[in-house]
Amino acid sequence: MTTFYVVRHGETLLNRLGRAQGRSDSPLTDNGKRTAAELGAELKGIIFSAAYTSDMMRAEQTAKLILSTSGNDNIQIQKESRLREWCLGSMEAEHNSLFIQAVSDWLGVSSFAELNRRLSDVAAAIYEHDTTGAAEPFDDIARRLKNALTDIAQSRLQNENSNILIVTHAFAIKTLYYLFAPEKLCVVDKVKNAAALKLLYDGNRFYFQE
Q: For this structure, is 94 an active site residue?
């Protein structure tokens, strides 16, 4: 059994400023560093066999703090570009309120819960309205994330009961819900900074542990 501890990065400067942050990157705030370290302390006693992050600075900073305070300083962080956040295209670094309003208008929805439920439509709308050519179709996003986790899990199958730290991003984590627990999307609120979820892989399938 492989247990992934899937974590959203700690609070960043762009988070603090209330701006949408996809491929745009910014460093952790002092609060972001504190909460990442606190999460690491909560995970103390768990021995990680590996740690993977997206290739974003904010994810790597978060992982370093978690590994340090959980007693896993010996683990080398491996950057995996497939764990990146969605690219928000023309909406990168836009104010969150304007970003959410634009997507809501494009889809004709009025609630955050409905946006969560229609996650693939959100990605499609961002892709359709992007003028930069950088946004991805949802199927591409879902495929790269699933393939990344599958490759990591299968590389660790010889190590029985491996614990693996994954530090990624909010939309990426919602995509994992879409893939492995779609019934939860309608009740998922905002994915909090430095929040951890347990995703298990038994050799055949992925599933979230409550």
A: no
User: Sign of the CA dihedral 96, 176, 139, 164?
Assistant: positive
Active site residue 128: no
Rounded to the nearest angstrom, the gap between the alpha carbon of residue 110 and the centroid of all alpha carbons in its chain is: 24
Judge whether 92 lies within some domain.
no
With respect to residue 107, please indicate whether it lies within any of the assigned structural domains. Answer: no
CATH of the domain at 73: 3.40.50.1240
Could you tell me if residue 69 is inside a domain?
A: yes
pLDDT in tens, 184-203: 887 787 899 999 999 999 88
Q: Which of 15, 149, 17 is nearest to 83 (CA)?
A: 149
Indicate the number of domains in the chain: 1
Q: Which of 9, 11, 92, 136 is catalytic?
A: 9
pLDDT score recorded for residue 129: 97
Residue 125 is assigned to a structural domain of this protein: no
* Active-site position among 11, 80, 85, 92: 85
Q: Which two tokens stand for residue 49?
A: 């066999």
CA distance 35 to 16: 14
- Domain extent, residue 153, equals 2-84+137-209
**Can you give the length of the chain in residues?**
210
